[in-house]
């Protein structure tokens, strides 16, 4: 099947009816040119940055350098130890022979376990070294991107929240302008007060919908006139779903609705600008150094007033979250944390039971009528290999949108920050529910009583369960790169959907572009999915070293495949210049600590007296994390003034910078800008306008 997918990709990739370069150029033209220098952290993670093309990506490097030592040393040590009989295999499934190549084959308290102790340290040292190198490399890429002479609107803007009430007789805009002009008299340009755009946005979206319908109706009419010069204009009924109601001329009806909505929009725009101002604003500076400096300064002695951060790109702003107050954001954040914790806990229950139930022995016990089918060797092999993994993948597919919703509910102001937050939640879901949940769930029926009697025994059960699930996770990793990468490369499902839409639904070029648009790389789910594979491979790298080649293949194919997809298929929806990296670094260290604690537990299960030798490892990891945070992280929170002070290739047009931040619903439908002069310039004392 995977060979077929690759062949389909090679055949279909350059066909004009499948791939239209102008679509890509049109979509990518909306992105900053500097995207080619650093497409966020995906270029480091997946090896698409120019400087990283010649080196392995981080995860691949960890597994390659670990495997160089672990495979030739640990496999012979394990396979030549005959202290445990083959009948006492620890694995579940049809791959019991793999036990002979795992740490479970080595006898308890045996001297051969020293080799696995050294291997545990080796994997940790390799990870420390490569993480350090990667952090330095990403910092350099971020610095070069921020030093670009290209003009980026967001570098001249700060986001101000928690603005206190204005004095009597003073407008909100006057309050903001006077506050920042007093602090930055030479570099302050103007401010833009955030407004409640709910109503005006509703009218704007309705207007845009009718414009699309009008363009579609005109295209249908023009097409029909080619075959029949006397063709009738398109018509439709105005009632429910166009099925009932008065029949009208579509083109005339849409034109009338557009004129009506434009008038409503202009009235609502004026009302919004004057009467729906919020306690947040965007403040513009004529120097990007001044904006960067302002974003890092404390502007009020009380932390819940005049809160300032650097502004994201205009396309990233989540306008509804900007006015949320300091304490509201904190409360929302902790409420979301509680919801995530409860969701993880309750999600672990069905995943644990699914893991337990989808083992064939338990499945036959619950559904005896399946026994004749399951007993057939070919079917049994396939079911044992893939049934639990498929059930797990389906469960995980339900999460991303829910986690994105929760992240937005925190009051986060930008799409890139929401993506990072959702990515972190998805990572903890994956590790706790998949790695730990499946590990415990596989022995749930046999170990439930012991955990119930002694809750502290859960750590012992986890350590004892790891070897039993080695083959499950090995086939899980294999399934991910065989099926997942095959579908990713061929994109056969999106291709079929595109052609169906193009043939039966799309009538104008804009609709064809919309149907073709591939979206972005999907950072919120892709990084956690890769981190789950890294967690699995890292935690089993010493217990069952044979899993390392599978990890190498997964990330090696990912480096080749996603490099192509990132550069030639996906269109980035935002640019945050590497701010995802510190989060990835933190997750990788969390994975490393989990691996180290797991190894301590498993050596304890093996009754190996020198096990305390491993106890310093988690402490080393915490110290390493602390050093990295102090040395590198600040630069990813705020731009360094040394970097941002480089000259631009031209003097920025501040009016264009300002207008790029005006929401579409407030800038659309105007016959001219004169009637909105107050919104686009400094207001007078008699006008309380803002944007």
Automatic annotation (TrEMBL):
Domain of life the protein comes from: Eukaryota
Q: Which InterPro entries match?
A: Csc1-like, CSC1/OSCA1-like_7TM, CSC1/OSCA1-like_cyt, CSC1/OSCA1-like_N
Q: Which residues form the CSC1/OSCA1-like cytosolic domain?
A: 155-321
Limits of the CSC1/OSCA1-like N-terminal transmembrane domain: 58-133
- Coiled-coil region: 200-227
Cellular localisation: Membrane
Q: Name one GO cellular component term.
A: membrane
* The keyword ATP-binding belongs to this UniProt entry's keyword annotation: no
Would the keyword Transmembrane helix turn up in this protein's UniProt record? yes
GO molecular function, a single term? calcium-activated cation channel activity
Pfam families of this UniProt entry?
Answer: PHM7_cyt, RSN1_7TM, RSN1_TM
Record field: transmembrane: 56-75, 113-132, 334-357, 386-406, 426-448, 531-562, 611-628
- Keyword list, A-Z: Calcium, Coiled coil, Ion channel, Ion transport, Membrane, Transmembrane, Transmembrane helix, Transport
Classify the protein's membrane topology as the record does.
Multi-pass membrane protein
Provide the family line. Answer: Belongs to the CSC1 (TC 1.A.17) family.
What name does this protein carry?
Answer: CSC1-like protein ERD4 isoform X2
User: Which species is listed as the source?
Assistant: Nicotiana tabacum (Common tobacco)
